[in-house]
Amino acid sequence: MKNFPFMLKPAAKDYLWGGQRLNDDFGKNIDMDPLAETWECSTHPDGPSVVSGGEFDGRLLIDVLKEHSEYLGKHCEELGELPILIKFIDAKANLSVQVHPSDEYAREYENGQLGKTEMWYVLDAIKDSRLIYGLKYDCSKEAIRDAIEKGELERHLRYYPIKKNDVFFIEAGTIHAIGAGALIAEIQENSNLTYRLYDYDRVDKNGKKRELHVDKALEVSNLKNIGEPRQAMRVLKYSPGVANELLSRCKYFEVYRMLINTERRQHVTFCSDELSFRVLLCYDGCGNISYCTEDGRKEYINIYKGDCVFVPADSVELVLNGVMELLDVRC
Fold first, then answer.
1. CA distance 66 to 72
2. Angle (nearest 5°) at CA 34 between 12 and 52
3. Is the pLDDT reported for residue 225 higher than 70?
4. Which residues lie below 8 Å from residue 13, measured CB to CB, with a gap of 6+?
5. Distance CA 192, CA 194 (A)
6. Residue 264 reports pLDDT greater than 80
7. What pLDDT is recorded for position 1?
8. Catalytic residue among 130, 158, 196, 257
9. Percent of the chain residues topping a pLDDT of 90
10. How far apart are CA 48 and CA 101, in angstroms?
């Protein structure tokens, strides 16, 4: 029996640096201000996504995958769970300067959790937006600790300008931060471990400064000069109705960009294989996915900007129609 796709409804986060673009640009209609992040495809207990529509309507994605582990595909059989988390991020203000641990460190010191390597795809960025990516030069733990205590950490950090359509790969251990004015799609390991080094002395809605994790952060940070992040050469491959390009590939995930345009009566076929599930994240435009059920009926899933669709491994053949831009994520 082939497996059928289904829509997901995200969990939401109101971190103090967020804005309202996820509601305004993506029509999330979430009563939260600020609305900093939506966790579009997540089984993490800090923000699980929910199935929307179909036979699993209203159920947590994690529960569906526990019942149907075959939906994950052979690459994830040993893990037994979804290994990634996919987000939209609206940075109205700067995010904290932070670092994520490796899998090895997290397993040993964070009760067996995963570490966090991640990828950012820049959906939009205002003029002069930038990110923090590592250090300008090699530093010692003592030098960084001293700079934090004196409020001088920023002079050690490497700032890098960003623009729409940029891609950044942030390996665990890299000191980093998303800057104000960036709208980001993030694909990451299934983890919520973040160690803050610096948070601009901000206070939350209760008037309290957010916790820093300097000791842990210095344990896991790469304090070498790793150089500027570089945009890799990307090649669009064209087929009737669609263009594809690889954005990022690592041992945790692969991310492709799909540009769908079937206005000339074309159609695009799509399916997952037995090795991995696929997640389709629509970040622009609209369209639909159609497929035939076992009894021959034709079903449709309408997709709008901001929607997320989970495609189980070994899926039925799907037909994509419309004018839309998608991220296609697999493991």
1. 10
2. 25
3. yes
4. 35, 36, 37, 38, 39, 47
5. 6
6. no
7. 60
8. 196
9. 94
10. 22
288/270 Cα distance (integer angstroms)? 12
Annotate 32-96 with DSSP letters as a single string: -SSB-EEEEE---TTS--EEESSTTTTSBHHHHHHH-GGGT-GGGTTT-S--EEEEEEEESSPPP
301 Cβ contact partners less than 8 Å away, ≥ 6 residues apart = 5, 6, 7, 53, 288, 289, 290, 309
45 CB contacts (<8 Å, ≥6 apart)? none
pLDDT at 176 over 80: yes
The mean predicted confidence, pLDDT, of the chain is 96
pLDDT tens sequence across 279-326: 999 999 999 999 999 888 999 999 999 999 999 999 999 999 999 999
Name the 3-class secondary structure at 175: coil
Rounded Cα–Cα distance for residues 242 and 203 (Å): 46
Q: What is the per-residue DSSP string for 247-285?
A: EEE-SS-EEEEEEEE-TTS--EEE---SS--EEEEEEEE
Q: Is 210 a catalytic residue?
A: no
Cα(168)–Cα(162) distance, rounded to whole angstroms?
Answer: 10
SS3 5: coil
* pLDDT exceeds 70 at position 120: yes
| Encoded tokens for 29 | 């209609």
- Helix, strand, coil percentages (3-state) for the chain, rounded to 5, are 15, 40, 45
Here the tokens at position 217 are 């952060």
